[in-house]
Input
Amino acid sequence: MEAKIDFIASGGVTSPRGFHAGAGCVGVKEGKKDKPDLGILFSEVPCKATALFTTNRIKAAPVVLCQQRLQSGRAAALVVNSGCANTCNGERGLNDAIEMADLAAWDVGLSPEDVLVASTGVIGQVLPVELIRAGIGQIVLSREGGHELARAIMTTDTVPKEIAVAVRVGDRKFTIGGIAKGSGMIHPDLATLLCFLTTDADVDIDFLRLSLREAVDISFNMVSIDGDTSPNDMVLIMANGLAENEVIGQYSDQAGVFQEALDRVCIHLAKCIASDGEGASKLIEVTVGGASGVAEARLAARTVASSPLVKAAVHGSDPNWGRIVAAVGRSGVEVVESKIDLYIGNICLLKAGHQLPFDVEKVVAILDNSEVPITIQLNLGTATATAWGCDLSEEYVTINSQYTT
Amino acid sequence: MEAKIDFIASGGVTSPRGFHAGAGCVGVKEGKKDKPDLGILFSEVPCKATALFTTNRIKAAPVVLCQQRLQSGRAAALVVNSGCANTCNGERGLNDAIEMADLAAWDVGLSPEDVLVASTGVIGQVLPVELIRAGIGQIVLSREGGHELARAIMTTDTVPKEIAVAVRVGDRKFTIGGIAKGSGMIHPDLATLLCFLTTDADVDIDFLRLSLREAVDISFNMVSIDGDTSPNDMVLIMANGLAENEVIGQYSDQAGVFQEALDRVCIHLAKCIASDGEGASKLIEVTVGGASGVAEARLAARTVASSPLVKAAVHGSDPNWGRIVAAVGRSGVEVVESKIDLYIGNICLLKAGHQLPFDVEKVVAILDNSEVPITIQLNLGTATATAWGCDLSEEYVTINSQYTT
Output
């Protein structure tokens, strides 16, 4: 069956049919009255839903609650706040998360078990539930509200991160949308603070789970900002079936195109997170080819993309390529020095382990761009992987040395 | 037998009997004619010698050469340069390292197989052997030359790192000395660029190997500056036996005190490296107690000490303690949130997972010190470990974004 995937201009999490969203400023972000900090995502009909969560042993209260509620494979709404992570708050934190879900459930007319909760912000601060109780009524849900929601989940992010794609298969059409936020405490597994995906496709829950894992492995799990994995990480997908397509299962004709569309959405959002990393001015895209296995290719690519020395060199447009090779060498994957090829942009600096003379000005010009591609060919096998990171700037330090004070 | 370990004022690598050293400026460090960049360490008699090397799969040429030569367990001299790492230079690099050893051997009157080589500096630059050939003659060896050698191995280090201890056992005395350098591309296993240790004790080579591994595991392998492991890492010990003590073997009476003295020397140098990390203004000492095993305690302590978010918060004296708990949580070790105690200095912020109210000004005052102790008690077992790191400053980024340009 012929299939076509198109990006939707100004698309987002409410582009798929039947999804509504909205946000408000209730005061969780202290002293920032113009910054939205509470939002709701709502589906007209119950969704198949699944999520992937942080691997941090310390888990935020909303993560614990969502893990319980998503065992049913079903959800209809999500309430999310920024400004407070509701992490390390013990039993009180869990009770606050439950109350936050209750308040949202009452507001949108659902039963609490169908409402999920997410939080992002400072760890170890008590959630000001009274502000949420007082302010949640101001949120107006609409079919265009996805953009407001994308803003309401931002913390140190400088831009909202949104996307939607339309998928046409034969005479049927479904849509996948998503929003995400970064932009510190970002490291593979799971490499994002929050990402919410929606689709109007009717998708079998088992396939939805498989498909999300596959998409996250090549997108969010390939991003690193600073090597710190957050206790609040969560990538959620909700599928409401309003496209009235044939249910997509693992062996359906449409499984391939659904996966491809979901991959594209996740990779787009993952790249947005990397290029908006705290203090970042450049996106670094590291591709490792010729590895002996996919796991090795991924590990090597992520190690280079997260090396502080590589990141600092890219920041200063310093063609200090030895650091790239050193990072591959310490990644733990099989490396034979005499086989490595190394490219910055399209300029080859190392061929079979031998240094080639290169035009420093041309390499500096590539490093001056807002996207810096680095390619390492190991020449040991056929596996390839790409990872994304950002440069390390003085501003990253400034942001993170004054976060709570 | 009674034993006593004393620090020697202004001690260093030539404090043990029979060791001589010297350094000169031969021009390897381009444009820095007043900075010493070539040095020699020499023992009057051949030494038992062993070293631990980087685990990076990319190995500097001097590392490859030393690994070959140290199979004999014997060495009498070392020649070392700073300003060029002689790494990623293929066969030419190895030949250059061999020639550098030949030149030093001729200079001090030894056979080349007894001479070891080390290099530190920029990766991927060809070693200017002609400058070494022309300049090596200017080096004058002396019994006080250890201080010059400590300066000759510095790159971005701001201070030389030296120590010696005198060990008295009964009526016998032996001495252990050492020098080291950091201060970027520093990460456990092996967490230093270069460290050279000397002793006049007569030590069995098998015990010397065991003992060095044990000392390095609790010192250099517990330091992290930036998570990047260098291809040039090397910790060398040379024991010349001139103290004329009874040979120390694994089961000797003196094995314990030798180990303790070596541990102290290595921990001192490791802490020097951490507090002189690139751009650092503070030493962070992280102790994890109550872990279920030593490996777990070490991993958790190292993860906190190397977390960029913890490091940036310490830099700004920001009491953002949630990041410490998040780092422990992502370290991969067993953690039960409701059992964790957390201290900054002597102030308890978290007791059995419950936040305690704390005086922000007092915590900020502790974070303002040049040494910041952080203690995490997991309350799961009895194992303890300490790791050292430094704060992350804007200057780290500035240094590393302009390293080769």
